[in-house]
Amino acid sequence: MWHIIITSLPEMLTAMLQYTIPLALVSFFFGLILAVLTALIKFIQPSENKLIKYPWLVLRAIANFYVWVFRSTPLLVQLFIIFFGLPSAGIQLSPFIAAVIGFSMNTGAYASETIRSALLSVPQDQWDAAFTLNFTTKQTLMKIVLPQAVRIALPPLSNSFISLVKDTSLASSITILEMFQVSQQITAKNYQPLLMYTLAAALYAVICTLLTFLQHYLERRTSKYVKGSEA
Amino acid sequence: MISVKNIVKKYDGKEVLKDLSVDFPSGKTTVILGPSGSGKSTLLRSLDLLVRPESGILDFGDIKLDYSQPVSKKLSFDIRKKTSMVFQNWNLFPNLTVLQNITTAPITVLKQPKQETEEKARKLLEQVGLGEYADRFPSQLSGGQQQRISICRALAMNPEYVLLDEPTSALDPELETQVLLILEELSKMGQSMIIVTHNMEFARSVADKIVFVEDGDILFDDTPDKFFNHPTTRIKDFLSGITFNDEKTTK
C-alpha cells in the first residue's frame, strides 16, 4: 500500500500545486472582489441626485440578477455552459480561464450576501456617530464600518473558501488535470479506487485544515478590540 | 444663537414636532425636558440633520437651512461642523482605540496635523480623568468612562454647540455622577450646550434655560427658576410624577 501511495503522490501533489491551489486562490481573489462590489451596490443607498440615482438602480438590478442566476443554478452546469456552451456563441475560452470565471462568479454570488449581511450587522448608531462628525459615506465605510464588518464576515467567508477548494474537483469535468482527475487516471492504471480516492480526499483535507488555521489566525487579529479576546 | 422656526416632523403621517419654534442661546446651557416620546430627541437630532423634518427653518445666524428644500453636501457639512453630538449609548467606534476615537475625525475631516491632534486629545482625556486609557479599546472601559470619551470626541471637533441626547440615561447613578460633573464644568466654562435629560437635579443645577416639550409642542420656554419654583399645573404634575416619594403619597 505504501508503495502505491509513494509512487502516486508526486503526480497528485503536482496536480494540486499546478491546478487545485491556483484555481482556488485566483478564483477566491476575483470572487471576493466581485462580492464586495456586489454587496456595496446593494447596500449603499444612492443620493437623490438623478445622475447618480438611476445608473445606481440599474447597477443594483444587474447585481440582483447576477446573484439570482449563480445561486439558482448548479455550479457544474455553470462550468459546462461557460466552457462547452459559449464557443457556440463565438466565445472560446481555455479550460483554466473558463474554470476561474465559473468559480469566481459562483463564489462571488454567495460571498456577496455574506458581506452584505456583515455590513447590515454594524448598527445604524455607528453611522449616526460618524455622520455627526462629518465623515463622508466613503470615510465611514473605510474607517468604521468595513473593519467591523470584516470581523463578522470572516467565519462565513472561510466557509466559502473551503467549499471552493473542494469544488475545484469539478474542474475535472471541463478537462482540467486537477488533483481529483489525476487520481482517477492513476486508478485506471492501478485498479485501487478505494486507496486512490481516499488519498485524494486526505489531500483536500490537508489544504482545508491549513485554511482553518488561517481563519483562526485572522479571527484573532480582527477581534483585538472585542471584550474577552486575548490580544 | 441657533433658532428653529416652524419645524414640522412626521413619522408615518403622525406629527411628532408640531410647528415648533425655539431659540438656543450661545454660550448657555439649554436643557430640554419632557416625557418620553414627546419629541425631545427628534428636535435635538434635527439640529444635526440626523433627522430630516418635513419643513421649518434652522438658523445659525450665518447659515440658514430650509428643511423643505434639498440640502447640499456643503450645507450639511457646515452645519455639522458647528455641532457635535453625544449619544445616549455613546456610540464609540469599537474598532478604534480611545485615542483614535477622538482623533480620527479631526485628522480625516478637518485635516488637522496628526501629532498636534493627538496631543490635544490626550489633554482632553486628562481633563476627564482618563489620561491613562488612551490606548485601550472602548470595550475595555465602563459605560461612564465611554461616555466621558464620547464627550472628548465631540469637543475635539471644536463645535460651537455640543448636543447631548440623554447622555446619562444608560448609566447607573455612580457612573452618571462622573459624567454630570464634567458637563457641569463645561457649562460653567460657557460652552454652548443643548441637553436632553431626565435628571431634574442636574437640569436645575446647569440650565440657563429650560424648554419643556410635550406631544411635539413647546409648553414652557423660560428660566429654570420659573420652571422649578413657579411651575404651571402640567409642569407640577410632570415634576411630581417623576419623584418616587410624591408618587407614593398621592396614591
TrEMBL record, chain A:
Membrane-spanning intervals of the chain: 20-44, 51-69, 75-103, 194-218
InterPro entries: AA_ABC_transptr_permease_3TM (IPR010065), ArtM/GltK/GlnP/TcyL/YhdX-like (IPR043429), MetI-like (IPR000515), MetI-like_sf (IPR035906)
Primary location group: membrane
Keyword rRNA-binding: no
GO cellular component, one term: ATP-binding cassette (ABC) transporter complex
Name of protein: Amino acid ABC transporter permease
Domain ABC transmembrane type-1: 17-215
MF (Gene Ontology): L-cystine transmembrane transporter activity
CDD domains: TM_PBP2
Location(s) in or outside the cell: Cell membrane
Organism for this UniProt entry: Companilactobacillus pabuli
One Pfam family recorded for the sequence: BPD_transp_1
UniProtKB/TrEMBL annotation, chain B:
InterPro entries assigned to the protein according to its UniProt record, in alphabetical order: AAA+_ATPase, ABC_ATPase_HisP-typ, ABC_transporter-like_ATP-bd, ABC_transporter-like_CS, MetN_ABC_transporter-like, P-loop_NTPase
Pfam families membership: ABC_tran
Subcellular location: Cell membrane
Alphabetical UniProt keywords: Amino-acid transport, ATP-binding, Cell membrane, Membrane, Nucleotide-binding, Transport
UniProt superkingdom: Bacteria
Annotated membrane topology: Peripheral membrane protein
SUPFAM superfamilies documented for this protein: P-loop containing nucleoside triphosphate hydrolases (SSF52540)
Keyword match Ion transport: no
GO molecular function list: ABC-type amino acid transporter activity; ATP binding; ATP hydrolysis activity
Segments forming domain ABC transporter: 2-240
GO CC terms: plasma membrane
Family per record: Belongs to the ABC transporter superfamily.
Record's protein name: Amino acid ABC transporter ATP-binding protein
